[in-house]
Amino acid sequence: MRALLDACVLYPTVMREVLIGAAAQGLYEPIWSARILEEWARAAARVAPQSEPIARGEIALLYANWPRASVRVDQGRMARYWLPDENDIHVLAAASEASADLIITMNAKDFPQRILAEEGLTRQDPDGFLVSLHHAKPDIMQSIADKVHAKAEELSGQPWEIRKLFKKARLPRFGKAVSSV
C-alpha cells in the first residue's frame, strides 16, 4: 500500500514518528513531495523559529532514509486537478503521480472522497489509519507506540501516560488501542 503523507500529519512530531515507524516496519510505503516537506518546515518555523532547523534536519533524514518516497509533481499537469482549496491541489497531484492508494491527512473537508475516487484514491485520517494497522499487526504497532512513548518521555523530561500522549497528538483511538495491552 502506498500512502501520501500530507504536511499536517508530518508535523506534529509524535504523529509523524508513529507513521514513519510503521513505514519502517514495511506496513506501507510513504510518499511525499518537496513542497509537502517544505510546508512542514514553514509550519514549524511559525510555531517557534528555533524549530525550523530541527524540522529541516528531520526532513534531511527522511530524504536520506526514504530516497524513493519523494515524488516530483509535473506543474503542467496540476491544472487538470481540482479541490475546494487550491493550495491542496499539489497533494492530490503528488498522490496521483506516485500511484498512491490513499492520502493520509487531517484535512477531510478539502479532500472530498468523490473527487479522490476519480483518481483512484481514498482519504484517511492518521488515527484511523494507525488503528487499522494496529488491528492488522498489533505487536508491531505496540512496539512502535512504546518506542515513540519512551522517546517523548526522554525528550520532555517528564512521564507521560501513553494514552494521554497519543490523545494530545490527535491520535485518541490509536492511544486507546495501544494502552489496552
Poorly predicted residue ranges? none
Terminal CA distance reads 27 Å
- What is the alpha-carbon Rg in Å? 16 Å
Instruction: Record the strand order, biggest sheet.
Output: 2-1-3-4
Helix content: 55-70%
Shape verdict? globular
Count up the helices. Answer: 10
Mean residue pLDDT:
94
Largest sheet, if any? 4 strands, parallel
* Strand count: 4
- Percent of sequence in beta strands: 5-15%
- Please, what is the oligomeric state? single chain
Order of helices and strands: EHHEHHHEHEHHHH
Structural class: alpha/beta
What would you note in describing this structure?
This protein is α/β, with parallel strands linked by helices and 181 residues long. 58% of the residues lie in helices and 7% in strands. It contains 10 helices and 4 strands. The protein has a 4-stranded parallel sheet with strand order 2-1-3-4. The mean pLDDT is 94.
